[in-house]
Amino acid sequence: MAPSNSATKKLAKVARSGKKRTIRESSDRTYPLAITAIVVVGCLMVFWGRSVRVDAQSVQPKLSDHWHAAYGFYTCDSFAAPPTDAGSDKIGIHTHEDGVIHIHPFSSAAAGERATIGKFFDMVGMKIDGDKLVMSDGTTWENGVTTCPDGQVGKLALVEWHNANDPAATPRLITKDIASVPFVNDRMAFTLAFVPEGAFAAIPKPESIPNLDQLTDVQGSTPSLPTDPMVSTTINDGAATATTTAAGGAASTSAPAAVSTTLSPTTTVKG
């Protein structure tokens, strides 16, 4: 027997009432959840902002520091011309087309642990992503794909010297997460190279190291030529050769280095 019209109306009313109740209960639950999420996100942002400020004030390079690092880009068998800034410096890491990275943070984005060589790459329009480096002019160097003039495929590597002028400083070879490498002290040296993997041990120091002694943008400094000979160490597979260059480059001599700085690909730092 079909339900009466009155019964049908009652069933419809009950259904509508249940639907409204479900919507109202859902809304009642959604509102406090949304408020809780906003509070949690707000607290996290406050804590993050506080940690950033503390880092910028206590971890070097701090906002008050003024550091410099020599830099060179070595492709296959020679250094490329020093890069220039691709725009205005908004954080405090830039270059003057002098082969020197100028690190004097005026933003927490470039201070402490956030002062990385990747920030410098961004400044000069270079993009490094995993196995590929793209220069500001679009030139691309890709691991296992791009070849050197001798036909050998190359691979990206960054060599880091903690003290640019110390012939006994042990270089560090980095092939992973290159952009995240931090600046940890003043007067470092970096060579970003694209060479066959077998040539990693011969990657040279940047040619711009002498420029660290001729800077004019250091507070309280005046231009000066190096007063001491510069000693650079070429990394070979079996031994190190020290080249001593007198101020002005007038004379040079070569002799076995007293302290070996031989770099082996087995010292590769990952992560």
Percentage of β-strand residues: 15-25%
SSE order, one letter for each helix or strand: HEEEEHEEEEEEEEE
Strand elements, count: 13
Mean pLDDT over all positions: 75
Unreliable spans: 220-271
Cα gyration radius (Å): 29 Å
Domain module tally: 2
Distance between the termini: 77 Å
Form type: extended
**What level of helicity do the residues show?**
10-25%
Q: Which structural class should the secondary elements be placed in?
A: alpha+beta
Largest sheet: 7 strands, mixed
DSSP helix count? Answer: 2
What are the salient characteristics of this protein?
three-stranded antiparallel β-sheet; 2 domains; 2 helices; disordered C terminus; 271 residues; alpha+beta; seven-stranded mixed β-sheet
Describe this protein's structure.
It contains two helices and 13 strands, in the order αββββαβββββββββ. It is α+β, with helices and mostly antiparallel strands. It has two domains: 7-58; 62-267, no CATH class. The strands form three sheets. Strands 1, 2, 3, 4, 8, 9 and 10 form a seven-stranded mixed sheet that branches. Strand 5 and strand 6 form a beta hairpin. The longest helix is centred in the N-terminal third of the chain and has 54 residues, at 5-58.
